From TrEMBL:
Organism the protein comes from: Leptolyngbya sp. NK1-12
4-aspartylphosphate: modified positions: 60
Every Response regulatory domain range: 11-127
Gene3D superfamilies, alphabetized: 3.40.50.2300
Protein name as it appears in the record: Response regulator
Length: 134
């Protein structure tokens, strides 16, 4: 629980075209005092990413228009010249996306429906690893 308590003030950018899922995760993460910025498309996410510089990215993979793979590619390109890379979690209902998501640049993969405890533990692990690498 000590690791979880260190999540207070962490900035998370959450990308999901499903409003219900996004709002559920936002409310759940806010219980841990995580600052959540919820957007519904890859385009909005890229704009928010540049503006907010989040500590963690959580993105759905299967979104209409531009998908989560395109988003992680663009973020990777943005961060190519920087020393800091933002940990990213892919979420999807499709189990076959795991390998592709991890090979495209996501650091973790969670299958929908998301278990909030597993998500929080994953965020904590990535946040600690990111801080140790900085």
């Amino acid at each position: 629980m000590a690791v979880r308590s260190s999540l207070s003030g962490l900035r998370v950018l959450l990308v999901d075209d499903d409003v219900d899922s996004g709002e559920f995760l936002t409310l759940g993460l806010e219980l841990y005092r995580i600052e959540v910025h919820f957007v519904r498309s890859a385009r909005e996410a890229l704009e928010a990413f540049v503006r907010l510089r989040p500590d963690i990215l959580i993105s759905d993979i299967a979104m209409p228009g531009e998908d989560g793979y395109s988003l992680i590619r663009k973020i990777t390109q943005l961060e190519a010249s920087q020393t800091r890379t933002t940990p990213a979690i892919a979420v999807t209902a499709l189990p076959d996306d795991r390998w592709k998501a991890l090979s495209m640049g996501y650091d973790a993969f969670l299958r929908k429906p998301i278990d909030l405890k597993v998500l929080v533990d994953t965020i904590a692990e990535l946040a600690v690893h990111s801080r140790l690498s900085a």
